[in-house]
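Here's my example:
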Amino acid sequence: MRWLTIIVVGCALSVSFWRTLTPSAPLFERKEGDGSVVESYVTGGTRTQFSSTGDASEIMHIGSAERQLGSQVTALKSIRYQTQGDDDLRWDIEAQAGVLYEMTNELALQDGVTVYEATNQATLNTETMLLNMDRKRAEGHNEVLLTGRGSKTTGSGFELDLVANTATVKGNVKTQYE
């Protein structure tokens, strides 16, 4: 009888301990209003890709990320993408929001995009940009301001090649030298 009491008390304690480990909220939560289900959510994450030599070739820091159930896209907030081109030039790209298309490994950035290249001290500012992370190429079709040493160039679009380290401003291009 004493062993039976010990076993019953032990089982009750195990069940109560197990229940404290399980989340109180459901695994997949519905978003209010639209009926969609959140499949995954990350706060304060880092995605690192490595080169064949084992060095980090690109790093993406995100403030938060959310993907809906059954979707192939992830909505991102507070994004910082860093990569390295030829000749060890470092590219640092920041945006307030964006969408990661995982199938094509493309990052659509929006709500103010800043691209900084540290070696030549050049900064590119625009509202939106599409970045193909596999090819390390980007393009934008909004107004752009490219600021370099002693000059400011504006245009209505641009292309970036992060490997060849080139920025091409397109459409209604104007340059002011200081």
Notes: The mean pLDDT is 81. The chain is about 10% helix and 55% strand. The first helix runs from residue 2 to 21.
